[in-house]
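Query structure, 60 tokens:
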């Protein structure tokens, strides 16, 4: 099977579809990761601020 035959075949179309779907999924995953990481960073900063203001009594 030559490259031209493959390009005209249905298998090539399916391959292109899968490449496009995979690229879209990777792009969406990166976008979601960025949003979640930003929100998680803010939550961690707030938790750190709250915990640093707590006094721990070590005397009995």
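Result returned for the query:
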């Amino acid at each position: 099977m030559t490259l031209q035959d493959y390009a005209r075949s249905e298998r090539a179309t399916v391959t292109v579809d899968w490449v496009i779907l995979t690229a879209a999924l990777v792009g969406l995953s990166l976008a979601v990761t960025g949003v979640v990481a930003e929100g998680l960073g803010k939550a961690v900063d707030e938790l750190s601020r709250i915990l640093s203001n707590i006094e721990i009594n070590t005397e009995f």
